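Dear Dr. H.,

I hope your travels went smoothly. While you were away I took the liberty of generating a structure for the chain from your last submission, since the lab meeting agenda had it listed for discussion. I wanted you to have the full record in hand beforehand rather than looking at slides cold. The sequence, exactly as received, is reproduced here:
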Amino acid sequence: MKKHLVLLGEFDDGVTSVALDKAQSYRVGRAAESDIVIGHLSVSRQHAELRLAPPGLAIQDVGSRNGTYVDDKRLDAGTARPGQRIRFGDASFLLTVVGDQGDDLEGTVDDSDALPEAVTPHFLQLAPRVNKSRI
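The corresponding predicted structure, in token form, is as follows:
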């Protein structure tokens, strides 16, 4: 099993995971046409764009009302590494790595960056494709 970057969030008494594919960028928002739909009132219809980029995830806020944050620091554009919290409005996610130790991390091109041990909670399920996923 390859390692994957995964957004892990907890909403409405449940846990949600989104496996990120290196070949895709993701539009995050409340709108149905978003790639990652977050049904939370603090999330704008078009909130942010994400894409895999060493050393982790590139994040671009697209003019959201309630902001995009990495570890509680508001940003217009920036990056997040595994182990950091990403927040869209009040909807919080942990960026983590899942997979077997020793495997390459899917989606990165620079293996020199230190990555934390793979996290594999029993409730985590990887989605092969996220398009139109509803969170």
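Two observations you may find useful: The chain has a mean pLDDT of 78. The chain has no helices and twelve strands.

With kind regards,
E. W.
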